Amino acid sequence: MNKTIGLYWFTNDLRVHDNPLLLRASAEVDQLICIYCYPKMSPYLKQYAQVPEFGSAKQQFLDESLHCLNLSLNALNQRLQVVDLPPYQAIKHAADKLGVTHLFVDAVSGSDEQDAVDKIQVEVPHVSIIQSEVRSLFSAEHLPFDLGSLPDTFTKFRKKVEKLALTKPVEAVTTLPPLPEGLALPTLSLTRDVQPSLFTGGERAGLEHCRQYFASTLASEYKQTRNGLDGMDYSTKFSPWLAHGCLSPKTIYAMLKRYEAANGANDSTYWIYFELLWREYFYWYARRYKRQLFRFGGIQNQAPLTSFYAHRFQQWKKGETPFPIVNACMHQLNETGYMSNRGRQLVASCLVHELGLDWRYGAAYFESQLVDYDVASNWGNWQYLAGVGADPRGSRQFNLEKQTEMYDPHMEFIDRWQGRCAGAHLDSVDMVDWPIVMGSSDKASSSEKP
Q1: Domain range holding 7?
Q2: Is residue 365 part of a domain?
């Protein structure tokens, strides 16, 4: 009898705990190959983010997460093949050259990844494709609606799902099929100088962070502190590990329920679940709308009244706008790869409303820098704020002066992150970067302007 060879394509599920799909792979094939396709800056991302590569903090967190996963697989006599190939090419090569018979992959929220799966299904029909949700609270069959009928607002979604019973996390995988003999794939070395960082990537670090968080009383105070701008204790900080799938939301939910059983439930502990539901909504939103997630006009295809000014975008990225709170947040992002949720709302509102810029440039820059980048949450939230997504009230504009008074009244955050930018103004150039503000010594008459 011919042996079955499985290919487990890791995406944003970099863990062995609560990974039912990996558990299924361990039971259904005779041999197994575990691969990860290292991400590259796509032409689309380069065009909009206007940077040549991912931020160093983002890359370091990913590399640490992959290294941790590889150690976990090594303990099961397996290893992670990190390949420098686009997913379709890697999977097609494995099917054609290595005899792969089964492909296991998360029910991904990214449209590019799902396109690769769909293409394989058509072009390599002898490969059985097994997809299921491994980074969501609910599975498709447990939702009280089909995907095409996804509620058009978060509130409607929450009311339909928040009382649903959740299945418990599954135990960690303890055995895996062996590698095929003579396996040869071009793999990448992830050796890189490790720099001081806010977060350490990987499943082990994520689980330890959760244990420490729920060993404290922070969860009982979360709703009061969650809008902070700086520090490690004002919010849960689960998002980097959730984004890479080092932690599953079910694991966090189970820890939360144990905390509530021991310490009591209140508005703050509920709000942690509320935030997990927001992430959940955007996961299904991305699966529902696919490439519409990146469309200027959003899911309704109604383009906002914004444009693109290259100089303003550079000011925003570098934290050199006339708005100190925005500058401080952007400096924080550029240095650490992280920004508070409140900060993200403020800088996004500034980009869209004060600067009049196409929201996709901001979303793409976030994608290039954030250690906790998640395609669904990032692009869904940007659509929401720009008024082209799931918010029925239209775009959200924040009063930056009032927000500063509320969240940084003594300018401590602004001063720590050097948010004051003397002489900053928006109108130094027009939309094609011609100078329109000049010093007294070089003023030109209207007839002299190009």
Answers
A1: 1-134
A2: yes
What b/e sequence results for 349-360 when a residue is b if at least 16 CB atoms lie within 10 Å of its CB, and e otherwise?
A: bbbbbbbbbbbb
Residue 429 lies in a domain: yes
Q: Is the dihedral of CA 223, 224, 230, 231 positive or negative?
A: negative
Asked if the structure places residue 179 within a domain, the reply is: no
Dihedral in degrees, nearest 10, Cα atoms 238, 161, 18, 132: -120
Scanning 290-323, the segments in alpha helix (DSSP H) are 310-318
Tens of pLDDT, residues 77-124: 999 999 999 999 999 999 999 999 999 999 999 999 999 999 999 999
| Residue 340 in domain | yes
When pLDDT is cut at 50, 70 and 90, the band that residue 442 belongs to is very low
Beta 102-106 vs 128-132: how paired, if at all? parallel
Domain endpoint, select from 248, 266, 294: 294
Q: Percentage of the chain with pLDDT > 70? A: 93
Q: Percent helix, strand, coil in the chain (nearest 5)?
A: 50, 5, 45
CATH of the domain at 140: 1.25.40.80
3-state secondary structure of 100: coil
Residues comprising the chain, all counted: 450
Clarify whether residues 302 and 445 are in a common domain. Answer: yes
| Percent over 90 (pLDDT), the chain | 87
CA atoms within 13 A on the CB side of 361: 23
Other beta carbons within 10 angstroms of residue 231's beta carbon come to: 11
Residues 6+ apart with CB under 8 A from 91: 7, 9, 100, 103, 116, 120, 124
**For residue 406, is pLDDT > 60?**
yes
Residues paired with residue 8 on neighbouring β-strands, in sequence order: 34, 104
Total tally of structural domains belonging to the chain = 3
